């Protein structure tokens, strides 16, 4: 009698072993996450995608920028993170603080953050949901994904639409003139660092009296 399993392709024992090993590793990784009280907001819980020109800040830098944003926003303030997910993640770790935050990001993996995630493509700077009212954020933190004037100019439209006034921009040192031209921001003394060293020197720019000098 024909065996029913005959038409099911069999995996070679080698492939099977490799697959089991992969699943085991994955389980261990997941296990570690839960045993360490895995935090879905920790930097690196979503890995960098270099094709999207993503580079996360070091923990220290993200904490510093998050702290600055909270101070700038004030009590009950609203903070928008435009293409700056690691600052968003840091802000979310400060639970119980009196502020609210949104993340505008092209990478849909960040939609795990639910209502606070807003899909954003800098090529369409004002293509934003209706509930994002103009000038409804006390401070906007932005890190345009590319070091080009076009990218900065378009991101600037979004920033100007969202902010009540305060802007915290993180971009390359080479963008100093364009940043002044498009957003009226000046370079701070604070030097942001990334978890992997970038070739381009990075700087922060603000248009208000910040704690970053």
UniProtKB/TrEMBL annotation:
* GO cellular-component term (any): cytoplasm
Q: Name one GO biological process term.
A: methylation
Q: Give the GO molecular function terms.
A: nucleic acid binding; protein-lysine N-methyltransferase activity
The reaction(s) catalysed by this protein are: L-lysyl-[protein] + 3 S-adenosyl-L-methionine = N(6),N(6),N(6)-trimethyl-L-lysyl-[protein] + 3 S-adenosyl-L-homocysteine + 3 H(+)
Q: Enumerate the subcellular locations listed in this protein's record, separating them with semicolons.
A: Cytoplasm
Q: Does the keyword Cytoplasm apply?
A: yes
- Is this entry keyworded Methyltransferase? yes
**Mind telling me which InterPro entries this protein's record contains?**
DNA_methylase_N6_adenine_CS (IPR002052), Efm5/EEF1AKMT1 (IPR019369), Mlase_EEF1AKMT1/ZCCHC4 (IPR041370), SAM-dependent_MTases_sf (IPR029063)
Per the UniProt record, one Pfam family is: N6-adenineMlase
What are the UniProt keywords, alphabetically?
Cytoplasm, Methyltransferase, Transferase
Q: What is this protein called?
A: EFMT1 methyltransferase
Species in which this protein is naturally found: Molothrus ater (Brown-headed cowbird)
> What gene is this protein translated from?
Eef1akmt1
């Amino acid at each position: 009698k024909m065996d029913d399993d005959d038409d099911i392709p069999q995996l070679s024992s080698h492939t099977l072993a490799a697959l089991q090993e992969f699943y085991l590793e994955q389980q261990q990784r997941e296990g570690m996450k839960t045993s360490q009280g895995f935090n879905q907001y920790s930097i690196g819980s979503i890995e960098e995608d270099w094709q999207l020109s993503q580079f996360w800040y070091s923990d220290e830098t993200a904490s510093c920028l998050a702290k600055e944003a909270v101070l700038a926003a004030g009590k009950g303030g609203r903070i928008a993170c435009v293409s700056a997910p690691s600052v968003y993640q840091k802000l979310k770790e400060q639970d119980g603080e009196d502020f609210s935050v949104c993340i505008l990001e092209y990478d849909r993996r960040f939609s795990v953050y639910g209502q606070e995630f807003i899909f954003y493509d800098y090529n369409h700077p004002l293509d934003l949901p209706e509930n994002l009212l103009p000038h409804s954020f006390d401070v906007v933190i932005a890190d345009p994904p590319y070091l080009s004037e076009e990218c900065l100019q378009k991101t600037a439209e979004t920033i100007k639409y969202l902010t009540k006034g305060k802007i915290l921009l993180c971009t390359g040192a080479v963008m100093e003139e364009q940043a002044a031209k498009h957003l009226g921001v000046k370079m701070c003394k604070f030097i942001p660092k990334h978890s992997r060293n970038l070739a381009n020197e990075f700087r922060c720019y603000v248009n208000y009296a910040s704690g970053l000098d």
